[in-house]
Amino acid sequence: MITLDTIDALARPHCLAVFGALHPGAEDGAPGGTGTIVLIGPSEPGFWPLLTASGEWRDGAPDPVDRWSKRVIGALAEGLGGTAIFPSDGPPYAPFFRWALASGRAWASPVRILVHDRAGLWVSYRGAVALRDRLALPAPALNPCESCAARPCLSACPAQALTGEGYDLPGCHAYLDTEGGHACLSSGCGVRRACPVSQAYGRLPEQSAYHMRQFHK
After folding, report:
1. Residue 16 is inside which H or E element, if any?
2. CA–CA separation, 55 vs 69, rounded Å?
């Protein structure tokens, strides 16, 4: 019998992990006949060294992270008799944000972006597996923001572009073009870095720097 623990064990050699699961309703945009959506994210530390040693990273072709994810999670889904779904597929795009909130392991943070019980504000989903069976789901996790008295995310953005009032995308990009923006470009978003759960997650600065370069092209 397939369980979430089974899927987590199959994902572990690829430095991936189950980041939550849900039984989708008709309003959740899952493929027809889906009993369970299983969200898959990077397991840190270890994900970035494994990915950058892959053929997708070394072949020089575009989108190495997405191509690696599609190969690895695609094979995982096939072995489980399920369907792989990816955030990069679309339009229309799969509602990963909605699925994350329904998974019992992610919430809207004080700065409105997703926060995860394990990855903090570094949360990302490399893909999902849609299964026909309704797997047993654990009780929802505890929202880490509810026990975070300091809430450093609210004041961490040096450009005041990401706050509890929302996200000023042009202001963020403008700041990254200044000398002061180097820390965010080389180590990742200062707001995401400030989260105590993020700091315990073990994500390498090199990974964050890569995604910031993609973001700020």
Report:
1. strand 16-22
2. 12
